[in-house]
């Protein structure tokens, strides 16, 4: 049985940080010299600006999000309003949930086994998959 194709979305948010897509990639087959095995991407829906953070463990995803949020809000002078993710365990901790609730960030999760719903971040990670991490 196969699924019907997802329609491409022509609706993009118009304001920076209105919606940010995120996905975690890894583990890589071989860690970098510094021990990095994963990366996490944050992509602004309006501008398509992409930030990538290298991680040694999935458990570092929450800290990477806090760093990204602080940096992006400082640079743009606006608050992050919504985060789209694939509902991976790295996004579902109680600490992550509490932090986003207190910050007023709407959480959007794609349905299991439907990576198309978080396609912007999934595609970015696939595109970067062939890049070597030299850090």
Automatic annotation (TrEMBL):
Keywords of this entry? DNA integration, DNA recombination, DNA-directed DNA polymerase, Endonuclease, Hydrolase, Magnesium, Metal-binding, Nuclease, Nucleotidyltransferase, RNA-binding, RNA-directed DNA polymerase, Transferase, Transposition
Looking at the record, the residues that make up the Integrase catalytic domain are 12-135
Basic and acidic residues bias locations: 123-135
Q: Which GO terms describe its molecular function?
A: DNA-directed DNA polymerase activity; endonuclease activity; hydrolase activity; metal ion binding; RNA binding; RNA-directed DNA polymerase activity
One CC-aspect GO term: nucleus
Tell me the Gene Ontology biological-process terms attached to this UniProt entry. Answer: DNA integration; DNA recombination; transposition
One Pfam entry for this protein is rve
Q: What ranges does the record give for the region Disordered, renumbered to this chain?
A: 107-135
**What reaction gets catalysed by this protein?**
DNA(n) + a 2'-deoxyribonucleoside 5'-triphosphate = DNA(n+1) + diphosphate
- Extract the PANTHER family matched here: TRANSPOSASE, PUTATIVE-RELATED, TRANSPOSON TY4-P GAG-POL POLYPROTEIN
Q: Which protein is depicted?
A: Integrase catalytic domain-containing protein
Q: Which organism is it from?
A: Agaricus bisporus var. burnettii
């Amino acid at each position: 049985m196969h699924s019907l194709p997802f329609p491409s979305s022509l609706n993009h948010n118009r304001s920076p940080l209105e919606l940010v897509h995120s996905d975690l990639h890894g583990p890589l087959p071989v860690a970098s010299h510094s021990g990095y095995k994963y990366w996490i991407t944050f992509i602004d829906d309006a501008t398509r600006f992409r930030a990538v953070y290298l991680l040694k463990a999935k458990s570092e995803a929450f800290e990477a999000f806090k760093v990204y949020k602080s940096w992006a809000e400082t640079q743009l002078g606006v608050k992050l309003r919504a985060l789209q993710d694939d509902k991976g365990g790295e996004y579902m901790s109680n600490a992550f949930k509490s932090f986003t609730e207190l910050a007023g960030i709407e959480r959007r999760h794609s349905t299991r086994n439907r990576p198309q719903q978080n396609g912007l971040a999934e595609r970015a990670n696939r595109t970067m998959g062939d890049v070597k991490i030299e850090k």
